[in-house]
Specification:
Elements (H helix, E strand, L loop, with lengths): L11 H14 L3 E8 L2 E7 L9 E2 L4 H14 L23 H5 L2 H5 L10 H4 L7 H6 L15 H15 L3 H10 L8 E2 L13 E3 L1 H12 L3 E2 L2 E2 L3 H8 L23 E2 L5 E5 L3 E6 L4 E7 L4 H12 L12 H12 L18 E3 L24 E9 L2 E8 L2 E8 L4 E5 L2 E11 L2 E7 L6 E9 L2 E8 L11 E5 L4
Antiparallel strand pairs: 1-2, 1-11, 3-5, 4-5, 6-7, 8-9, 9-10, 10-11, 12-13, 12-21, 13-14, 14-15, 16-17, 17-18, 18-19, 19-20, 20-21
Helix pairs in contact: 1-11, 1-12, 2-7, 2-8
Length: 483
């Protein structure tokens, strides 16, 4: 049930102002749930994102990882001061450095393991799939506890420790202790080749479920009257444990770090993940804001929260404003990422096109990259035909052929490689068609600009965000049948 914002001290107009600023400045929010005093006061998703689909959370997963570690400590299965090597007698390197020997569980939690920076790309490349051994074999450049370096490898090793001590994956360990109690029936978590929950990334939940997790921490580990997480662990995990920059800097990435939680300005804290995934908790204001998105600059979103929402949180209820609340509810129900739409009619002959054989190696793929997404075969052919309300795109990738409905001025749902997709397409001019494919369980939106000429077309693919380049080599296609 959703209460009016005014009943909990928030003007509906302030939330609309936040939405206005977000859509004008970044145009990349996917979903939001704002709760105060334990009640949802605003909830919305930008179509084609929808309530029933989980969204990749990336590094927000780390805050759930800490929760599993904290519960395991509470059950006496391990201690924060245990040496890391205690759990991996069979995976330790032949020569153990003094710094590796000094590494403790709490150093993994606070990102002070002694490594200079991110280690994930280094240990995940092992052919034997033994990521724990790969992590432990890396050089430890600093004395543990003295150097903060954000490091998803440290989070992964925490998951491996929990699994070694409990005999369960972190996901299965947390299911009866956390997820079931929060009403999260079907969480998914990516695993390494040896079946260990990735923990530093890979968890997928719905936005409302993420907000419940934030509410659990705001309530000191209590949810619906049950103490799920010990209160002292909530306080310790979300408190300042180590420095990660200058706290007087105008950045929410320099306010200190707890146990897999970031400290924020305004005495708030958060779990966050790449490209705009947030679980933001404001204890003094008794508020929780969960957001998902697909954007580069995550500080921009937090700045909008501090500018539009934080000053509007009054200490008590406000007078009812039925008109403003109704306006906000209508706005939240009609949020949408702008689809592609035609500005003109095509001036070219439509039909089928293909890459000359053999296909060049640089032929692009529409697959959204990132953890958990497999490399896909390259585009080798496409066909385009008009259909009521849009276009039918037939896409060939190697031996696979996909038929994708593209709305002109609307998102049409479908499936691409067994994953939900929503697609729109429009003519930017008489010879240029832009196709956008939104993968609503992720931050990724793939776009292909098709530039037609008398001899065929050039397809130019790109992504909205990625961990590497978002631009891919163009591919040339010539008139030819697409089977």
């Amino acid at each position: 049930m959703t209460d009016t914002p005014e009943a909990h001290g928030i003007p509906s107009a302030a939330i609309e102002s936040f939405l206005d600023a977000g859509e004008a400045g970044i145009d990349a929010l996917h979903g939001m749930v704002l709760a105060r005093h334990g009640r949802v006061v605003a909830e919305g998703r930008w179509r084609p994102y929808r309530a029933g689909l989980p969204h990749a959370l990336f590094s927000v997963s780390k805050s759930f990882t800490w929760t599993g570690v904290g519960l395991a400590v509470h059950e006496g299965r391990l201690s924060l001061d245990d040496p890391v090597l205690k759990f991996f007698p069979d995976a330790a390197p032949a020569e153990v450095s003094d710094r590796l020997a000094a590494m403790r569980v709490r150093h993994l939690l606070t990102m002070t393991s002694g490594h200079t920076g991110e280690t994930t790309e280094l240990f995940t490349q092992r052919r034997d799939g033994d990521w724990a051994r790969g992590f432990l074999e890396l050089p430890v450049e600093h004395e543990p506890s003295v150097h903060f370096a954000y490091n998803s490898g440290a989070s992964y090793l925490l998951s491996a420790i929990v699994q070694r001590r409990t005999g369960e994956t972190l996901l299965d360990y947390l299911r009866p202790r956390l997820f079931d109690s929060l009403g999260i029936a079907d969480p998914t978590w990516e695993t390494c080749p040896r079946g260990i929950s990735a923990s530093g990334w890979g968890l997928a939940l719905r936005t409302g479920e993420l907000a419940r997790f934030g509410q659990l921490y705001l309530n000191g580990g209590v949810f619906q009257g049950r103490q799920l997480v010990p209160a002292e662990w909530v306080r310790e995990a979300t408190a300042w444990q180590v420095s990660n920059g200058r706290p007087d800097a105008p950045s929410d990435w320099s306010q200190g770090y707890g146990y897999q939680f970031w400290r924020c300005r305004h005495d708030a804290y958060r779990g966050d993940g790449a490209f705009g995934q947030f679980c933001l908790v404001l204890p003094e204001q008794e508020a929780v804001l969960a957001m998902t998105g697909g954007l580069w600059d995550m500080q921009v979103v937090l700045d909008l929260v501090w500018e539009h929402l934080l000053p509007a949180l009054a200490p008590g209820p406000l007078p009812a404003d039925d008109a403003a609340a109704r306006r906000l509810a209508e706005r939240l129900a009609t949020l949408e990422l702008p689809p592609e739409r035609s500005r003109t009619t095509p001036e070219v002959s439509l039909g089928a096109f293909a890459v000359p054989e053999p296909a060049p190696q640089e032929a692009p793929s529409l697959r959204p990259p990132g953890p958990g997404w497999l490399e896909q075969p390259a585009i080798t052919g496409l066909a385009l035909a008009p259909r009521a309300g849009g276009w039918l795109l037939t896409l060939r990738e190697g031996d696979l052929v996909h038929h994708i409905d593209c709305g002109d001025g609307a998102w049409l749902p479908g499936e691409y490689r067994s994953r939900p997709v929503a697609t729109s397409a429009g003519w930017a001019d008489g010879r240029t068609l832009v196709v956008r494919m939104c993968f609503p369980q992720s931050p990724f939106v793939a776009a292909v600009t098709c530039r037609f000429d008398d001899a065929g077309l050039t397809a130019e693919p790109r992504l909205n965000v990625d961990f590497g380049s978002t631009e891919f080599p163009a591919v040339r296609l010539h008139p030819a049948p697409v089977p």
